[in-house]
Amino acid sequence: MTPEELGKAIAAALKAAVDDGTFSLEGELPEVRVERPRSREHGDWASNVAMQLAKRAGMKPRDFAELLAVRLREIEGVDSVEVAGPGFLNIRLSAGAAGELARTILTQGAHYGRSDSAAGHTVNLEYVSANPTGPIHIGGARWAAVGDSLARILAFSGANVVREYYFNDHGNQIDHFSASLLARAHGEAVPEDGYGGQYIQDVANTVIEQAIDAGDQDPRTLPDDEAQEVFRERGVALMFKEIQDSLHEFRSDFDVYFHEQSLHESGAVDRAIERLGEQGALVDKDDALWLRSTDFGDDKDRVIVKSNGEKAYFAADIAYYLDKRERGADQCVYMLGADHHGYIGRMYAMARAFGDSAGAGKNMEILIGQLVNLVRGGEAVRMSKRAGTVVTMEDLVEAVGVDAARYSLVRASVDTTLELDLDLVASHTSDNPVYYVQYAHARTCAVGRNAAEHGVARDDGFRPDLLEAPDSDLLGTLARFPDIAAQAASLREPHRVARYLEELAGAYHTWYGKARVTPRADEEVTDLHRTRLWLNEATRQVLINGLDLLGVSAPERM
Fold first, then answer.
1. How does 181-215 read in b/e, with b if 16+ C-beta sit within 10 Å?
2. Are strands 372-376 and 364-368 parallel, antiparallel or unpaired?
3. Which SS3 state, helix, strand or coil, does residue 307 take?
4. Which of 41, 354, 400, 494 shows a CA-CA span of 20 to 30 A to 422?
């Protein structure tokens, strides 16, 4: 019996009690959920439904619980029900009912844990969005891992997810980038406000080669303004392609690559400003056009069009949000770096000015991520051989591999600074979380192979009533996966999945030390061996499902 099935059974018992007059409850009955008690001595599952409803029934919670417990004891598969404290219901399932979970998991396979908790929502999830002026740095790598994992988790929970990358290819940073390329092409020092690193020289060389191969004039022979335009067009395209390729290798692909320049070229910025005017959210002041953002929760009003007629950068943000909404997104989730914390107020105010909601789970939601610090040999890693000034995603992948990089970047809450010990993350020890989890999966595969060699086959028997205490502990952990996945989706916290997998790996390793799937040399194969094979395979499936949500592989051998 799964937690969902038990919750529905309790709800049915509650309804029956209302129908026959045991309880007098007006209005709709709530969805009944169960959770694992803090101590397994208190049972397999617990519910506070009596404490939720007792006041409506005009009863003390404990009295309500006692009456409901009588009915719960009649549910098939329930072994015992105890009332604890002010009215908690502690429920213990029969071994057979608890063990049926293994069959459920293997029947559902890759779908085990899926839900419709986010169904009906189209979520536009924007993450990474690094400027096309250099390789993705380690902070961007964190967003690539977290963003892609969150997208997988939201889809797992029923949402329609649009993964989006915003290319800021309009503005001063592109001018500085192209000027840097031009300088390196002429063998000159990079301008003071330009970009450094070996990659600038590499891109400049490639631009020259591509131009000549295409039959165009060597850009080094052109006047500086014409040459810079060549380096701008070809250099940005090269950087764009490199970023896409790097992200693909990192298992982070996108549905939409949106170019900021298109907002200006299409007139979307002007249309968005017009819409805000129609909403009565704009005011002319000091020869400039302002968003009255203080009316919508911001700490000050924001300039949209400057006194010289030039659009403020914020104007593009406004147009971009409106474009997302017009493309069908009812939830726009922005994943931004720590340096964007000051954007929250103005962005939320802008959304409200359009008549939308802003905040957690609303039309606009902004997540702010903190920095990543790398350590190797006890020393901080601060420089990249290629980028010069920052550590890149490619540096991290080269050091530890994609699996370890992704898992390590996602296992901590994004609102905390993350310190990665490269030596630890690359190690093959139980102290390394990703190795610990992957090894658990590899061990389930080894147990399965060993079982086959000893003639233990799942199809020959399934007797969950034979399972014992160690089996029950592992089953309890497996049962929590659907709730963990749903929580990770609703709270936008993929690290919950990683921490759960570490808990499951620990539970499995403990179970492995106490329970046998294969008989000893002088023993015959029994139904208990076969049933435990079901449990072993169920664990393997949940590990696969969880690792897939994080974009991490599940190796069969380690």
1. bbbbbeeeebeeebbebebbbebbeebbebbeeee
2. unpaired
3. coil
4. 494
> Which domains are assigned to the chain?
3-93 (3.30.1360.70), 172-231 (no CATH), 430-549 (1.10.730.10)
**pLDDT value, residue 287:** 92
User: Is residue 366 helix, strand or coil?
Assistant: strand
Tell which residue, 450, 454, 468, has the closest CA to residue 532.
468
- Which helix or strand (DSSP H or E) is residue 183 part of? helix 172-185
Residues pairing with 90 in the sheet: 46, 82
φ/ψ of 218, rounded to 5, equals -55, 120
Residue with tokens 């659907």: 482
Q: Using 50, 70 and 90 to split pLDDT, how confident is the model at 384? A: low
**Distance of alpha carbon 1 from alpha carbon 20, whole angstroms:** 26
In single-letter form, the type of residue at position 557 comes to: R
Q: Stretch 3-15: mean pLDDT, rounded? A: 88
Distance (Å, whole) CA 403 – CA 547: 10
Pairing of strands 160-167, 256-259: parallel
- Confidence grade of residue 252 (pLDDT, cut at 50, 70, 90): very high
Give Cα separations from 144 to 244, 493, 515 (angstroms): 11, 14, 40
Return the bridge partners of 426, or none.
Answer: none
- CB atoms < 10 A from the CB of 522, how many? 5
User: How far apart (Å, rounded) are the C-alpha atoms in residues 351 and 358?
Assistant: 6
Closest CA to 363 of 372, 374, 375, 350: 350
pTM of the model: 0.89
pLDDT tier at 388 (50, 70, 90 boundaries)? low
> In 386-480, which ranges are continuous DSSP H helix?
393-400, 402-410, 422-425, 433-453, 469-479
Helices 224-249 and 198-213, axial angle in degrees (round to 10): 110
- How do residues 75-99 score in pLDDT, each as one tens digit? 888 888 999 888 888 988 887 778 8
State the Cα torsion 249-252-253-258 to the nearest 10°: -120
What is the DSSP secondary-structure string of 201-215? HHHHHHHHHHHHHTT
3-state helix/strand/coil string of 373-391: EEEECCEEECCCCCCCCCC
For residues 157 and 549, the answer to whether their CB atoms sit within 8 Å is no
